[in-house]
């Protein structure tokens, strides 16, 4: 009963019957099950100072993530150094770190579709393997049962 109350307060779900999309609201923010790869401009709406730090990905996501990771570590080091020397000037480093994180977030979002596809392939392979093992187990049980039935029939014939 409480869960129904909370569900009504914080979670509402609507279904679009025409194209099987669901949208839902959690704590007043709307979400949709329809997936699309976001554009970098969409992330700019969340962070006003976001600048794209990479040219074009074209399958080079891992290298770009590594570069951004190195940049993030370097900026963090600079931030710590700046906080020791002149704590009043930290805001520019915070903005630079935020920009790197926004770029990181964007690149990770672009590879989620590939990750989901690979995950489904792995799950499907596991299911196929489990089903093959189950079928083999059933076939082994069937052969064993048939052998037992033949043995019983032979014993009955021999007793007559």
Describe the structure using short key phrases.
single chain, mainly alpha, disordered N terminus, 3-stranded antiparallel β-sheet, 3 strands, 160 residues
What does this structure look like?
The protein is mainly alpha-helical. The chain folds into two domains: 1-34; 38-115. The protein is 68% helix and 10% strand. The protein has four helices and three strands. The chain has helices at residues 2-10, 40-44, 61-85, 90-159; strands spanning 11-16, 21-26, 29-32. A three-stranded antiparallel β-sheet has the order 1-2-3. β2 and β3 (29-32) form a beta hairpin. α3 (61-85) packs across α4 (90-159). The termini are far apart. One of its GO terms (molecular function) is transcription coregulator activity. InterPro entries: Med7/Med21-like, Mediatior_Med7, Mediatior_Med7_sf.
Layout of secondary structure:
Layout: H1 2-10, E1 11-16, E2 21-26, E3 29-32, H2 40-44, H3 61-85, H4 90-159
Helix pairs in contact: 3-4
Strand portion: 5-15%
Q: Note the total helix count.
A: 4
Radius of gyration: 30 Å
Low-pLDDT stretches: 1-13
Largest sheet: 3 strands, antiparallel
End-to-end distance, in Å? 69 Å
Number of strands: 3
Write the H/E string, N to C: HEEEHHH
Keywords: Activator, Nucleus, Transcription, Transcription regulation
Subcellular location: Nucleus
Subunit structure: Component of the Mediator complex.
GO cellular component, one term: mediator complex
Outline of the structure:
Helices cover 68% and strands 10% of the residues. It is mainly α.
């Amino acid at each position: 009963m409480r869960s129904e109350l909370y569900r009504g307060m914080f979670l509402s779900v609507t279904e679009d019957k025409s194209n099987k999309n669901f949208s839902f609201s959690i704590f007043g923010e709307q979400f949709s099950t329809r997936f699309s790869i976001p554009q970098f401009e969409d992330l700019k709406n969340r962070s006003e100072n976001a600048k794209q730090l990479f040219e074009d990905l074209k399958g080079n996501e891992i290298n770009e993530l590594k570069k951004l990771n190195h940049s993030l570590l370097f900026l963090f080091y600079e931030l710590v150094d700046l906080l020791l020397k002149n704590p009043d000037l930290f805001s520019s480093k915070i903005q630079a770190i935020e920009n790197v994180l926004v770029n990181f977030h964007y690149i990770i979002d672009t590879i989620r579709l590939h990750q989901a596809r690979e995950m489904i392939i792995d799950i499907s392979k596991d299911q196929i393997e489990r089903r093959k093992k189950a079928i083999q187990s059933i076939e082994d049980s069937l052969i064993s049962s048939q052998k037992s039935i033949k043995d019983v029939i032979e014993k009955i014939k021999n007793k007559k």
